[in-house]
Design a protein that fits this description.
- By secondary structure, the protein is of the alpha+beta class.
- The chain has one domain (about 5-10, about 35-180): Glutaredoxin (3-Layer(aba) Sandwich), CATH 3.40.30.10.
- The protein is built from six helices and ten strands, in the order βββαβααβαβαβββαβ.
- Strands 3-2-6-5-4-8-9 form a seven-stranded mixed sheet. Strands 1-10-7 form a three-stranded antiparallel sheet.
- Strand 2 (about 20) and strand 3 (about 25-30) form a beta hairpin.
C-alpha cells in the first residue's frame, strides 16, 4: 500500500461545483448537499485500508456534526475497470453495511477529483458556509498498523473552530492514504506515483 499525501489545495479556495450520481442512482449537486454551517467533501473508496481504518469514526462524527449544520459528502473517483471492488454496486453495499449517514457519490470521469486536486483516499476538504476552503488535511494521526487510536481529532477541531467562528487550526497536516486510482492516461498533472 503506497502512501500518497494530499496536495493541500489553497485555503480560501471556492468549492468546485459538481453533479454526481449517488448510490441510489440519484443526481446530487454540491448546491443541494451543502450544509448551513459548513460542508465536508471527502474522497474515499471501498477498498483502501486507510479509509477502512476510519469508516466507523467517519460515521460517528458525521452523525454528530451533521446535526450541527456541517453536511458530509463522500466521493469515490477510482477507476472501477481496474479496481472493480470500488464499483457503484459495491459502494452501495458498503454505504449500507457501514451505515453512512452521508451521500456516497461516484465520480466516473474523475473530473471532480481533479477539480479538488484530490490525490489520496481519504482526502478531506472542509468548507465554510460560503463554500470557501477552511481546512484540508488529515483526519487524525492514526494509520493502519501504527497503534494510534482513531479519534478524528484533527478534523473535529477544525469543525468545532468553524462552528465557533474561530480561525482554522494550524498547522494543517496533509492526509495520507492510497493514491486515487486514475484511469490510464487520465492522470492529472499534479499526480505523483
Amino acid at each position: 500500500m503506497a502512501a500518497t499525501k494530499s496536495i493541500m489545495l489553497e485555503l480560501g479556495s471556492k468549492a468546485p461545483a459538481f453533479e454526481l450520481i449517488d448510490t441510489n442512482q440519484e443526481l446530487r449537486s454540491l448546491a443541494d448537499l451543502a450544509g448551513d454551517e459548513g460542508t465536508l467533501v471527502m474522497f474515499i473508496c471501498n477498498h483502501c485500508p486507510y479509509v477502512k481504518h476510519l469508516n466507523s469514526k467517519f460515521v460517528e462524527l458525521a452523525n454528530e456534526y451533521q446535526k450541527k449544520g456541517i453536511n458530509w459528502i463522500a466521493i469515490s473517483s477510482n477507476d472501477v475497470e481496474n479496481y472493480p471492488q470500488d464499483s457503484p454496486e459495491l459502494m452501495k453495499k458498503l454505504a449500507e453495511e457501514e451505515g453512512f449517514p452521508f451521500p456516497y457519490l461516484y465520480d466516473e470521469n474523475q473530473e471532480v477529483a481533479k477539480a479538488y486536486k484530490a490525490a489520496c483516499t481519504p482526502d478531506l476538504f472542509l468548507f465554510d458556509k460560503s463554500l470557501k476552503l477552511y481546512y484540508r488535511g488529515q483526519f487524525d494521526s492514526s494509520r493502519p498498523g501504527n497503534d494510534i487510536p482513531v479519534t478524528g481529532n484533527d478534523l473535529e477541531k477544525a469543525m468545532q473552530n468553524l462552528l465557533e467562528s474561530k480561525p482554522a487550526p494550524e498547522p494543517q497536516i496533509p492526509s495520507i492514504g492510497c493514491n486515487i486510482k486514475w484511469k490510464p492516461g487520465n492522470e492529472p498533472a499534479y499526480f505523483q506515483k
